[in-house]
């Protein structure tokens, strides 16, 4: 498998991840997302309903903690991650030799040997190496962060050793995990050291929304990806490890980075490895990560939106249908309901009484099954009555909308309309 | 003319079983038919398209629930329940009376109607026959049910007789209240408890009315099965041949097969969809409790002979695991169970058309029970009464 880039604009890498799957016939366009699953199933959906969504990602993400048995997945390209980004996981269970995951049967403590045994059972196409990813909590000491990086590198070496000996994983690739919390020098060390190993790609861990502010994240990711072995526009930044300075630098250097990126312009490279960031899903954060050099994302975000009874409604299309949403959304999305702090400004809350007799589709012009067939009033009713179909319909719409967002993002990079695109998507973020 | 016609396609030469085509405003329905129940205007996580793909031609909505939420005005604005839930085929709605008596405390029946306290705001509400029909007119169902005076089938004495006579009077009020007789069919409900004399009296009275169809009510509420089947067969003996017969609340496979033999055409029950949500999958030899440990490593489909989307793709082990993590597990089993019910009725129907229904019943019983000693005696007796002898 390899990542073929067709162009880089303002740090955004446009391309195709190719040679995927047993037949090497599959590919995934980047920037893009994996198909989020639990127990190898997209939540709420069956095969029938899932396949009403057009252009599903060619790569399915499964996580060890949501996988309980050998599943028949032979026709899918699989990326296996350690944790389900949506599930909270208790801290304090990591040791020098083990990490813990929480499945339906409770806690499983994994050594690298056990971890690799499970991988051999799943036979993914690619998988993240075992990692100590517990440093995302606020106030984690620098010492603890350093330990996480050391342990993660040690796990990677052991995994690589076992990987080579495992027949079942002959065609699989290991993704090295970059840790380092919010400590720049640890991030850089983690990236540099990981890049020295024969990995097929890189996982950026510990960048969840809760872990740090958006500017810190963007700067850390940008600096980190510069350390990864990719032919990419080298940033001229020499960032100081101090967080405050990073943030100052961020503002100062934005235009400089842009200029550098532009100067490099079009370029092709024969081979490359993909960079995936875990725990990042909000559209604004996705855009900033893409600008910092990330190729791939998980797609747990539409699921989270579904679980709170909301529908993604932010505009992303260059030519929105006349009635769409922009002016209306500004008004709608600003109201947060019942103190629901998790709701973002990219969505509308279908539980709101105002939708009781609203016979419009969730999003005008949306081609998803839900919008083609059902109304806001109906989905509101399903939520009111706690009916299971609400989750099905919202999941269909939210997944479609999210995939549409990535498609539009790629088009914007391809056609040099990135700024317009950002304006559209981020317009109503100002109220946040 | 009533918006319904029934054509008898074939009759079993031995028993009272029959295969018909029931033509309703939204589409024809092949009977005998099982009607899945979509209480709140949705089929438990299954989309309208999936239900259509399973071959479902008619399903139920509950007037009580829909009348409460989202309310008849809103559904009328959405072009009826068909429009609201985006379902192109037929719908049957109940009167709402049964739910009130069974779900709500403090319901009181007077000549005027059923008085109950709203579980949402605590207000006293009176549901009259006229109101029930008015709500069902707003819902726009293809078949509406009269409001009847429901007494538990285990109650005896004068209350049963009173309820029977009142149900006849309420039928007349419902007929008079129907605003859409040209596009909505109103079915009468035969009452009379477990008393053959009262049942017969009710049948005599109600069949004098020119209603498009009849339901057999007041059964499957915990009575003895011996009493149950006798009331069913008594009813079908006196119902007109050219009108559909709907046995309310019946959905176990055995009951379906026996009651088809006794001459019933239509059935409904929440059981197949409810039990699916607890991980119970219906199969020709009974059911599988998919949450049980024994299925954790069982890589067979639920039923190797089943052609439903679930069985074509997923194993018992997969469903067992999925039940621990996602509601899609329920959807998979719901689809299988609805398919099981619909397929059973299709097979029953085909056997009637092929003039092989008695043989079908025998094979069905052999698969369902390990040996003839296990056949429930009521079923043996009921089938025997229509000349199908199992032993
Ligand atoms: Zn949609
Ligand atoms: Zn099946």
TrEMBL record, chain A:
Superkingdom of the source species: Eukaryota
UniProt binding sites for Zn(2+): 366, 368, 371, 397
Locations listed in the record: Cytoplasm; Mitochondrion outer membrane
A Gene Ontology molecular function term of the record: tRNA-guanosine(34) queuine transglycosylase activity
GO BP annotations, alphabetical order: tRNA modification
Protein topology in the membrane: Peripheral membrane protein
InterPro entries assigned: QTRTD1 (IPR028592), Queuine_tRNA-ribosyltrfase (IPR050852), TGT-like_sf (IPR036511), tRNA_ribo_trans-like (IPR002616)
Subunit architecture: Heterodimer of a catalytic subunit QTRT1 and an accessory subunit QTRT2.
Role played: Non-catalytic subunit of the queuine tRNA-ribosyltransferase (TGT) that catalyzes the base-exchange of a guanine (G) residue with queuine (Q) at position 34 (anticodon wobble position) in tRNAs with GU(N) anticodons (tRNA-Asp, -Asn, -His and -Tyr), resulting in the hypermodified nucleoside queuosine (7-(((4,5-cis-dihydroxy-2-cyclopenten-1-yl)amino)methyl)-7-deazaguanosine).
Name of the protein in its database record: Queuine tRNA-ribosyltransferase accessory subunit 2
Naturally occurring in which organism (per UniProt): Danionella cerebrum
Taxon lineage: Eukaryota, Metazoa, Chordata, Craniata, Vertebrata
Gene: QTRT2
């Amino acid at each position: 498998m390899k990542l073929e880039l067709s162009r880089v604009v303002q740090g955004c890498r446009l391309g195709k991840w190719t040679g995927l799957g047993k037949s090497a016939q599959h590919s995934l366009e980047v920037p893009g997302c994996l198909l989020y699953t639990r127990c190898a199933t997209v939540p709420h959906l069956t095969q029938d309903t899932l396949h009403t969504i057009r252009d599903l990602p060619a790569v399915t993400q499964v996580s060890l903690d949501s996988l309980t048995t050998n599943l028949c997945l032979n026709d899918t390209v699989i990326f296996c991650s350690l944790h389900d980004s949506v599930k909270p996981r208790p801290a304090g269970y990591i040791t020098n030799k083990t990490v813990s995951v929480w499945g339906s049967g409770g806690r499983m403590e994994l050594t690298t040997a056990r971890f690799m045994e499970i991988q051999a059972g799943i036979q993914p196409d690619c998988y993240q190496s075992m990692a100590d990813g517990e440093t995302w909590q606020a106030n984690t000491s620098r010492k603890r962060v350093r330990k996480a990086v050391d342990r993660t590198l040690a796990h990677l070496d052991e995994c690589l050793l076992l990987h080579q000996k495992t027949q079942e994983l002959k065609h699989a690739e290991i993704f090295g995990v970059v840790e380092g919390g919010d400590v720049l020098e640890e991030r850089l060390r983690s990236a540099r050291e990981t890049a020295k190993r024969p990995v097929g790609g890189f996982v950026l861990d510990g960048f969840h929304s809760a872990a740090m502010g958006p500017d810190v994240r963007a700067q850390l990711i940008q600096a980190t990806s510069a350390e990864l072995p990719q032919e990419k526009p080298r940033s001229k930044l020499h960032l100081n490890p101090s967080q405050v300075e990073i943030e100052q630098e961020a503002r100062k250097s934005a235009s400089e980075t842009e200029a550098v990126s532009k100067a490099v312009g079009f370029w092709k490279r024969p081979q490359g490895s993909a960079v995936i960031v875990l725990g990042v899903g909000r559209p604004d954060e996705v855009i900033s990560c893409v600008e910092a050099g990330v190729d791939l994302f998980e797609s747990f975000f539409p699921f989270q939106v579904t679980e709170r009874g909301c529908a993604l409604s932010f505009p992303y299309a260059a030519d929105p249908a006349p009635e769409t949403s922009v002016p209306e959304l500004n008004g709608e999305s600003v109201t947060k309901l019942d103190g629901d702090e998790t709701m973002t400004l990219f969505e509308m809350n279908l539980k709101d009484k105002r939708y009781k007799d609203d016979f419009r589709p969730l999003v005008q012009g949306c081609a998803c099954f839900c919008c083609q067939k059902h109304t806001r009033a109906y989905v509101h009713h399903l939520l009111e009555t706690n009916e299971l179909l609400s989750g099905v319909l919202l999941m269909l719409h939210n997944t479609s909308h999210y995939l549409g967002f990535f498609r539009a993002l790629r088009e914007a990079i391809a056609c040099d309309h990135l700024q317009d695109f950002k304006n559209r998507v981020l317009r109503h973020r100002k109220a946040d | 003319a009533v918006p319904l016609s029934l054509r008898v396609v074939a009759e079993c030469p031995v028993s009272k079983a029959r295969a018909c085509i029931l033509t309703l405003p939204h589409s024809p329905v092949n009977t005998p038919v099982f009607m899945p129940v979509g209480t709140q205007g949705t089929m438990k996580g299954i989309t309208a398209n999936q239900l259509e793909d399973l071959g479902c031609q008619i399903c139920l909505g509950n007037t009580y629930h829909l009348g409460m939420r989202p309310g008849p005005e809103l559904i009328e604005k959405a072009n009826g329940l068909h429009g609201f839930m985006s379902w192109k085929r037929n719908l049957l709605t109940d009167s709402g009376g049964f739910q009130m008596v069974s779900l709500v405390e403090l319901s009181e029946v007077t000549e005027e109607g059923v008085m109950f306290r709203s579980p949402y705001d605590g207000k006293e509400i009176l549901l009259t026959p006229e109101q029930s029909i008015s709500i069902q007119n707003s819902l726009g169902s293809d078949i509406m049910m009269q409001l009847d005076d429901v007494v538990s089938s285990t109650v005896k004495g004068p209350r049963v007789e009173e309820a029977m006579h009142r149900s006849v009077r309420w039928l007349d009020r419902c007929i008079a209240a129907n605003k859409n007789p040209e596009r909505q069919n109103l079915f009468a409900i035969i009452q009379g408890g477990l008393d053959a004399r009262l049942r017969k009296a009710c049948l005599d009275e109600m069949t004098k009315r020119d209603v498009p169809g009849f339901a057999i009510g007041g059964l499957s509420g915990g009575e003895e099965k011996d009493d149950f089947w006798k009331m069913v067969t008594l009813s079908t003996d006196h119902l007109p041949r050219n009108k559909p017969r709907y046995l309310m609340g019946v959905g176990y496979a055995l009951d379906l097969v026996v009651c088809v033999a006794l001459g019933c055409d239509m059935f409904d029950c929440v059981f197949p969809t409810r039990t699916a949500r607890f991980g119970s999958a219906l199969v020709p030899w009974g059911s599988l409790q998919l949450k049980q440990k024994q299925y954790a490593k069982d890589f067979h489909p639920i039923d190797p002979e089943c052609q439903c989307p679930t069985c074509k793709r997923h194993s018992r082990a997969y469903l067992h695991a999925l039940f621990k993590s996602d509601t899609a597990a329920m959807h998979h089993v719901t689809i299988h169970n609805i398919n099981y019910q619909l397929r059973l009725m299709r097979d029953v129907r085909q056997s009637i058309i092929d003039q092989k229904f008695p043989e079908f019943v025998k094979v069905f019983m052999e698969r369902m029970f390990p040996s003839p000693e296990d056949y429930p005696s009521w079923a043996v007796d009921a089938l025997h009464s229509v000349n199908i002898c199992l032993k």
